[in-house]
Design goal:
two-stranded antiparallel sheet; 6-stranded mixed beta sheet; globular; Spore Coat Polysaccharide Biosynthesis Protein SpsA, Chain A
């Protein structure tokens, strides 16, 4: 766990760091989740972001109990004693519906929300905390399967240097590295951006946001959208 990967160096930005930072991470236990989760954790620690955050809250979805056992084996008591800021927010078997997204007030939904489930948990948390708190939302689901080159947003990565001739493994690793650099390794730059802004969105529901914006979320309006 926390395997060593070859990474680049972050810029040394001079900014105010007097912010409480909380990470929410949505983890779907399927396919190569261990590779991705280990990569993200390593980047969080290696970038210095782990030392700055107050919490890393992880929401877990699993289809197969075997995968959950594998998670508990890989990330055992010893691991959590070493990384005390990492907290398992919830574990849910995929087929268990409705999804309880809030406790106070209680809110349930009769559909699968993907990473939206953990985003709503983040909103609930933010409602009880400081407007100036800063949140990073990350997830594994969007890069778990080999990238579909027909997706419109894949052009974003072509523009950043991904070869159109790359195979699925090469594309996946390129995207992992790029998103890690933009969201994790450049964490100081992103915090600096949020001094005068409430939201920094990168791609595929990976973003930084201030608590003040999360508090504006209206669940009833969201739940009234016909497609939901």
């Amino acid at each position: 766990m926390l395997k060593k990967y070859v990474v680049g160096k972050s810029k040394n930005l001079v900014i105010s760091l007097n912010k409480n930072i909380v990470i929410f991470y949505h983890l779907f236990l399927m396919n190569n989740w261990k590779e991705i989760f280990n990569f993200h954790l390593y980047e969080i620690v290696n970038s210095g972001l782990y030392d700055k955050v107050s919490q890393i809250n992880v929401g877990i979805i699993y289809k197969d109990g075997i995968e959950l056992k594998e998670f508990n084996k890989e990330f055992n008591k010893e691991f959590f004693e070493s990384y005390k800021k990492i907290n398992i927010l919830y574990e849910r078997q995929y087929d268990l519906i409705p999804v309880k997204v809030w406790n106070n007030p209680e809110r349930k939904m009769d559909i699968q929300l993907g990473e939206g489930e953990t985003i709503l948990k983040m909103v609930e948390y933010a409602r009880e905390n400081n407007d100036e708190d800063i949140y990073l939302f990350f997830h594994s689901k969007g890069v778990t399967d080999p990238p579909d080159k027909n997706r419109s947003q894949i052009s974003h990565f072509y523009n950043k240097g991904l070869s159109k001739k790359s195979d699925s493994s090469e594309a996946r690793y390129f995207i992992l590295r790029d998103m890690s650099h933009e969201l994790i390794r450049e964490w100081k730059r992103n915090i600096d951006f949020l001094v005068d802004n409430e939201f920094y969105y990168y791609i595929w529901n990976f973003f930084w946001v201030r608590g003040s914006l999360l508090k504006k979320f209206d669940f009833d309006s969201f739940n009234s959208i016909p497609s939901l």
